[in-house]
Recover the amino acids of this structure.
């Protein structure tokens, strides 16, 4: 007779691990491609997820929406460039993904 005291569901923890891994991959993608035109819907679709599922799980883990994460990332990069380079504001905005 097995005496199991752990009430966790191994499938649920595997699912949570997979969700965390997907969010980690998304953040890595955003970090690498932040200067490009990124569609949250297209990114989610490319990973086989619905945009709604992706946004909900990203927010649950990061406490911020994927779009706001991307905006914050771009703003941080722009601030760094403003402090450390001689590029104009227009050039920097283009460099961080704000082309209009």
């Amino acid at each position: 007779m097995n005496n199991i005291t752990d009430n966790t569901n191994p499938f649920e923890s595997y699912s949570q691990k997979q969700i965390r891994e997907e969010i980690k991959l998304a953040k890595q993608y955003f970090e690498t491609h932040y200067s490009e035109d990124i569609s949250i819907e297209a990114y989610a679709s490319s990973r086989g997820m619905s945009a709604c599922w992706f946004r909900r799980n990203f927010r649950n883990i990061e406490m911020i929406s994927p779009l706001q994460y991307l905006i914050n990332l771009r703003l941080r990069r722009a601030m760094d460039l403003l402090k450390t380079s001689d590029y104009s504001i227009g050039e920097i905005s283009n460099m961080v993904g704000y082309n209009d």
